[in-house]
Give the backbone structure.
Amino acid sequence: MLNKLVKVAGIFSEAMRDAVLFLRFNSYSPFADKSKRAFYKIIIEAHTIEKGLSLRHPKMLFGKDKIRFVMAALSRYDLQHSPVPAHMSLGALDAYVNFHARAGMSDPFLDEITGYLKGWEARLPKPWKGGTRDYSFQTQPPGSLQHLIASRSSVRTLRSSPIDPDRIVEAISLAQMAPSQCNRQSSRVHTYRDPALIKELLALQGGSRGFSESVGNLFVVSSEICAWGGPGQRNQGYVDGALFAMCLLLACRSMGWGACPLNLAIDHKTESAIRRVGGIPAGERLIMMIAFGEPVAPETTVAFSPRRPAAEIVTVH
């Protein structure tokens, strides 16, 4: 009975620490980095322009207040932090003007945007990576995608040799296609190839016994808390981070590597220790680790891990 009471008390203790961490680093906090706050806020608002343009029948002159906010915020934004919000905003504004031009519409508001864009061309030349793009269902045969998803398993028979950093970045680039709320892209990846450091990190994680010695490459996936604000978004970092981590696992499979996700069901003390050992900023919430590497052999053995029939988990309303 006492043991159960201690565990219940621990839940409240960890929840309080969650609250303190979120209060300290969320986007409404005065202690949050101003450049990071501006980065996420501009991306969120620019994405509303993109969404409006991607509708089947966009409204004429929609989102004036949003657009004026984006232009004002971007004018104050420090490009040295990251050019992504500028590319996304300018591309969306350019697409907005072009959409109305194709519709044969003229308006002083559109002239205002056009003048704003011209002022940016010298500072950040075209092409701008934002707005909308064409999409085809014909470029990716469904069968190959189905095979990629169905063929993924947790592989624990890995070579300990480090993988070339360029190939790792290639896999991460694929994973960046993961959906992200309002395109925030809050996920972060910390990559380790040093055996001693990996050993220390895995010891803190505690779930790789029996194959940790063969792990020569390790991801720690995290999410920046500053991307989120308010009580309703307190758990969204986990959602974004988990979506990214799943795409990263599929990217590893597409590269021909074995990979094994390692949960981080840990308390704050252990999370802080992992951050300290791994050099991870305090403003990032840890999502999971992923051990990965070249397979020991082309053929190996994995856990069967049968899945429940879909009928058991679906409710058709």
User: Anything to note?
Assistant: The domain at 142-293 is CATH 3.40.109.10 (NADH Oxidase). The mean pLDDT is 92. Residues 159 and 296 are 5 Å apart (CA to CA).
